[in-house]
């Protein structure tokens, strides 16, 4: 603020203070009501018309309508005012230049999120006829008064600046005078989107050949970007393009199959996770074993201890039925000889050693051959499905075994010896002779 002190007519002293085009002159309050305009002259400006603008605490503020009042000293002639004693002092305060501060919130965002920028002006003139206008500039900026918004949909990651300007002054002349405008700027950052994360699982994780498994892929984008899914299997077939897929093991070998789940967002950020499915061969059923069937006793006929009697036939008839119901099974007949029979055989073998035509009877072998002959000739069972062997028992029994396909008779029933069927031939079954009682014969005579 500049001030000029002048004395007029040697007796009046007043102060003229000027800023821009404003002049403040203090009058005696009781004299003001009779005045409306005050003409003022300057040595450089022929005439200025000073119009009173406000009255506050006895101080009048004037504003010029024309001319430049930003120069140094003034020489004022207040027509008639001094003589009337209306001017007591002249003075005014300098207006502080306008200021502007900007702030962007939030300071960091992801593409597509909105940014709001606010501008706060300071030292704004309180004059009633002063307008305040704001201007905004920057990428994607739309401003309205003290607030602007920024559209970031098309922005790439990086730093951006928003500029603001404020102007005050008479309408249409804002910012033309020094101190009537101010600028500020605010910055914000567009962050790059974070990549997605993904986890992968298989249910079930262990399957049999030809079975399938459901693959679940759980993808997550920190900024909720849209995700697309894809899958890859090292073998077999996997299908699906959403959060779930189906793995088919058709045609795949047994073993572990690696499966990869992939996610991709719309910003080309990707992530992947692995899981696996194990293809196992089905458990083999337990191997079949020889099954004991009915047994036959040859102890009932002491004279013919190798003959197949009616009780033996009943057992053999049931064995024939079992073989017909299991066409891939076979039967093994195992017969024993008791101690007495074995002793007889031993003696006969000694005799045969000296006499080549001597007969040796093997009771156990003969029993098996006779039973097989019945099954073949009477029941029509193929001879190849019937095996005969001797056991180690001390009895006159024959035990029969049904041997399913895949069973190992030798491991299931140990201690048997095969019979040489070329050396032992089946005996011809002869009916028992008819017995005649003596009393009945005498009566007939």
Write up this protein.
The protein is α+β, with helices and mostly antiparallel strands and 445 residues long. It folds into 4 domains: 2-90, Thrombin, subunit H; 99-191, Immunoglobulin-like (Sandwich); 197-279, Immunoglobulin-like (Sandwich); 291-418, 60s Ribosomal Protein L30, Chain: A. Helix content is 15%, strand content 40%. It contains 7 helices and 28 strands. The protein has helices at residues 29-32, 81-84, 310-325, 339-354, 363-379, 409-412, 438-444, and strands at 2-8, 12-19, 22-27, 38-40, 48-56, 59-64, 87-90, 99-105, 108-110, 115-122, 131-137, 141-144, 147-150, 158-169, 181-191, 197-203, 206-207, 212-220, 227-233, 237-239, 244-248, 255-265, 270-279, 291-297, 330-335, 386-390, 397-403, 417-418. Strands 1, 2, 3, 4, 5, 6 and 7 form a 7-stranded antiparallel sheet that branches. A 5-stranded mixed sheet has the order 24-27-25-26-28, with helices on one face. β20 and β21 form a beta hairpin. α3 packs across α5 (363-379). The longest helix has 17 residues, at 363-379. The N and C termini lie far apart (183 Å). Mean pLDDT is 80; it is low at 1-92.
């Amino acid at each position: 603020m500049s001030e000029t002190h002048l004395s007029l007519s040697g007796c009046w002293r007043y102060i003229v203070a000027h800023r821009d085009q404003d002049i403040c002159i203090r009058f005696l309050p009781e004299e003001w009501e009779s005045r409306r305009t005050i003409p003022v002259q300057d040595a450089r400006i022929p005439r200025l018309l000073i119009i009173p603008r406000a009255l506050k605490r006895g101080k009048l503020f004037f504003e010029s309508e024309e001319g430049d009042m930003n120069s140094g000293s003034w020489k004022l002639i207040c027509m008639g005012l001094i003589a009337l004693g209306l001017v007591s002092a002249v003075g005014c305060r300098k207006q502080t230049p306008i200021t502007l501060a900007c702030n962007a919130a939030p300071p960091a965002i992801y593409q597509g999120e909105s940014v709001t920028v606010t501008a706060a002006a300071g030292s704004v003139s309180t004059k009633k006829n002063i307008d305040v206008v704001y201007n905004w500039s920057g990428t994607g900026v739309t401003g309205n008064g003290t607030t602007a918004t920024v559209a970031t949909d098309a922005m790439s990651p990086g730093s951006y600046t928003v500029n603001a300007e404020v102007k005050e002054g008479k309408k249409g002349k804002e910012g033309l005078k020094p101190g009537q405008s101010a600028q500020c700027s605010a910055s914000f950052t567009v962050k790059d989107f974070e990549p997605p994360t993904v986890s992968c699982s298989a249910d079930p994780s262990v399957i049999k050949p030809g079975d399938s498994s459901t693959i679940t892929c759980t993808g997550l984008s920190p900024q909720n970007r849209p995700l697309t899914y894809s899958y890859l299997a090292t073998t077999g077939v996997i299908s699906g393009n959403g959060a779930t897929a189906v793995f088919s093991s058709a045609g795949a070998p047994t073993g572990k199959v690696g499966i990869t789940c992939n996610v991709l967002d719309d910003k080309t950020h990707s992530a992947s996770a692995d899981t696996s499915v194990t293809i196992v061969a089905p458990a083999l059923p337990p191997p079949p074993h020889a099954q004991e069937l009915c047994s036959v006793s040859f102890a009932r006929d002491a004279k013919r201890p190798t003959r197949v009697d009616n009780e033996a036939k009943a057992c053999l008839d049931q064995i024939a039925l079992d073989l017909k119901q299991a066409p891939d099974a076979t039967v093994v007949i195992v017969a024993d000889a008791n101690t007495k029979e074995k002793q007889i055989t031993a003696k006969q073998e000694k005799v045969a050693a000296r006499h080549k035509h001597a007969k040796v009877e093997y009771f156990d072998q003969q029993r098996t051959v006779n039973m097989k002959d019945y099954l073949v000739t009477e029941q029509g069972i193929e001879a190849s499905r019937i095996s005969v062997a001797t056991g180690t028992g001390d009895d006159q029994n024959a035990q029969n075994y049904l041997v399913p396909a895949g069973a190992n008779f030798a491991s299931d029933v140990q201690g048997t010896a095969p019979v040489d069927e070329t050396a032992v031939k089946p005996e011809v079954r002869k009916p028992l002779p008819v017995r005649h009682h003596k009393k009945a014969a005498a009566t007939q005579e």
